[in-house]
Amino acid sequence: MTTAHLSAFICYRDPDAAVRWISDVLGFDLVREFRFEGNLTHAELRRGDAVVCVQRDDRGYDVPAPKGDCVGAGMYVVVDKGGIVAIHQRAVASGSTVLIAPETTAWGNFRTELLDPEGRQWSIGAYHPGQ
Prior knowledge:
By secondary structure, this protein is an alpha/beta fold. It is 18% helix and 40% strand. The chain has one domain: 2,3-Dihydroxybiphenyl 1,2-Dioxygenase, domain 1. The radius of gyration is 15 Å and the shape is globular.
């Protein structure tokens, strides 16, 4: 079997605000950024083995509105149970939209569901997919 590594990239209209939210709320560290004429065009953030690349949205992509507690797709970040509660608290303090407060699902995952400043969904849970 060939090994692979998956990293996400997301385009934001305000990439600086996205980087701040991903850092301040989710606890990722900024490891690299590229600017053109003072504007952030690409940034890379890491938390453990998770990597998110933030890019400038120069095309006006649409983000779906939530239907109930989901937008239909999002990012899933695995952290320990205490980390989930801390992220949820930071999200609330930042004014983020909480789709699902910390809970234990029927399949045993402890998780919270949040929207970032531009409405993308982030699921933070203790369950390790694929294991």
